[in-house]
Each structure stands twice: as structure tokens, then as C-alpha cells.
Amino acid sequence: MAPLRFCANISWLFTELPDFSKRIYAAAAAGFQAVEAAWLYDCDLSELQRAREATGVEVVLINTPPGDVQAGDLGLGAVPGREAEFRQGLDLALDYARSLSCKRIHLMAGRVPVGSQRSTVARDMENTFIQNLRYAADVLSKEGMTGLIEPINSRITDPRYYLDSPHQDPTELKHAVLLHWENRGGTLERDEMTEEIRGLKQSLACAVSSSGNAHDIFHCQIMDGNLSQNLQKYLPIIAHIQIAQVPDRNEPDSAGELNYSFLFSTLEKHGYQGYIGCEYKPLGSTKEGLGWLSKYTQQATTTGVR
């Protein structure tokens, strides 16, 4: 079994340093070989490039721009009437991803509009999301990149986020999952597959699963639980995982609901090879809170996980 690979989410870790480029250096010094981030768009891109090149750290994931944060936006992928802004944001994300050699972009769904009921706008938001994902899949496939979607829990973190459940999988996106799975060597039934959906086969860079492809264990535990079974079920189409303790979103070994030693063993057992993003709030300094990672690395070496 290969040891798991962890990346530092520098939007959450090393925030003792105000500059993202300095956080890349700090992550490298702490032993991370990769980083991810939410939004880097206020940063000097040349400084980020220099930090990445100097450290050799891989940038594995960035998000599309949130939109107008002051107005309450948190992504635009599923927001009706904002399609042009979504495309502009995707273009900006692509510029940064190209420059940083990043191959994954989280396509943020966005929030249910203020004053609207989720049940009332759900169909329109689903249709908008599907159209935007189709567009993004075509663009990203030409760049050799992958688009990810991720549910964000609506019980604690964001009551209005549209994509809030690991099982919130529109019918058309489920078909996309089957196609992606088939392309990776799976054998799944595709009953009632429409010609239009079949056409996604060549351009489907946006690998979507019911866990959102970017499987954030913190959000999934809050909304659904049943983590080990869901990981096993959807692992073939999960491209990225993120971790934090529940409910306070601190270090994986802090007090809380989750036994990460067991979950890490589960991922090893099933051969997960992607990165695991450390997207949590350190209780103290980032460096002081990395004892869990040192322990994992030591145990992996001792038990012969390699």
C-alpha cells in the first residue's frame, strides 16, 4: 500500500503569514510537497510562481472566483442569470491555473439567492449548473485540467449553499459520472442514456460524483455520515479529498466525532492515490498542530506502507 499524500490548504493553514507566497514557503518547510487554496486572485501571480518554482511545491487545486463577496456570493456555477460572470471567473481561474501548473479547479456552485426558497429555485439552479458544467468541461478538457464540484454542508457552514449534500446528484450529472467511470475502465449500465449525454464522453473533464468529486469529509459527515461506506462506494470517481475534525473544524486529531486513523486506513486499504487537503482551523500555530501528520508519516514508515 502506498502512503497517503497530504497537501496544505494555505487559505486555512499558515495564516500567521499574510502573504500566500510566503505560506507556500512555510508549507514546504513543514514538509508538504503540495498546496491548495481557495482564492488567490488578490495575490501577485509572479510572486506565487516564484514561490512554487523555488520550493518545488505542487499547486493541486484552486477555486473559481466567488463572485461579489460583499453581496453574499460564494460561487456562481448554479446561480441563474450569472452565466456570463461564471465564464469570466473560469477564465481568470484558468489564467492562474496555467501559470501555477495546477490541474484541478473547484467549480463553486454558489448560494440560493437571498429571498428565494431552496425548493422553489432548485430546478432552475440545477439546470444552470448543468449548463455551466458542460461549458467548463469543454474548456477544461482542452487544457488537460479537471473541474471538481464539492458539497458544502448547510447545517453548520452555509445554510444557503446550493450543493449541500453528497447525494445531491442531478440525473444528468449521474449520467456524466457513469461516462467518466467507464472512461476509467469501469463497467456500468447506462440505461436510457440520451444521445446528448453520450456526447459528453469526449469532453468530460468535469468528473462529478455524488460526493462532489472533491470529497470534503467534514461536510459529508455533517450532512450524511456513513463515511467509510461512502468512501468505498465513490472512491473510483473521487479526485480529491479534504479533511477536518467535526464539529469544530480543527486538526484531524483534535477532539471530535471522527476517527481519522480509521479513515486513513480505509483510504489506504482501497488504494486512494489522490491528494488529501488539510482544510482546517489550527487550534494554535499551524506548525504546532502538525503532530498528527508526523505521527502518520512515522507509522507509515514503521508499518511498511510505501
UniProtKB/TrEMBL annotation:
<keyword id="KW-0670">Pyruvate</keyword>
<dbReference type="InterPro" id="IPR013022">
    <property type="entry name" value="Xyl_isomerase-like_TIM-brl"/>
</dbReference>
<protein>
    <recommendedName>
        <fullName>Putative hydroxypyruvate isomerase</fullName>
        <ecNumber>5.3.1.22</ecNumber>
    </recommendedName>
</protein>
<dbReference type="GO" id="GO:0008903">
    <property type="term" value="F:hydroxypyruvate isomerase activity"/>
</dbReference>
<feature type="domain" description="Xylose isomerase-like TIM barrel">
    <location>
        <begin position="25"/>
        <end position="161"/>
    </location>
</feature>
<dbReference type="InterPro" id="IPR026040">
    <property type="entry name" value="HyI-like"/>
</dbReference>
<comment type="function">
    <text>Catalyzes the reversible isomerization between hydroxypyruvate and 2-hydroxy-3-oxopropanoate (also termed tartronate semialdehyde).</text>
</comment>
<dbReference type="InterPro" id="IPR036237">
    <property type="entry name" value="Xyl_isomerase-like_sf"/>
</dbReference>
<keyword id="KW-0413">Isomerase</keyword>
<feature type="domain" description="Xylose isomerase-like TIM barrel">
    <location>
        <begin position="215"/>
        <end position="295"/>
    </location>
</feature>
<dbReference type="GO" id="GO:0046487">
    <property type="term" value="P:glyoxylate metabolic process"/>
</dbReference>
<dbReference type="InterPro" id="IPR050417">
    <property type="entry name" value="Sugar_Epim/Isomerase"/>
</dbReference>
<feature type="active site" description="Proton donor/acceptor">
    <location>
        <position position="150"/>
    </location>
</feature>
<comment type="similarity">
    <text>Belongs to the hyi family.</text>
</comment>
<feature type="active site" description="Proton donor/acceptor">
    <location>
        <position position="279"/>
    </location>
</feature>
<dbReference type="Pfam" id="PF01261">
    <property type="entry name" value="AP_endonuc_2"/>
</dbReference>
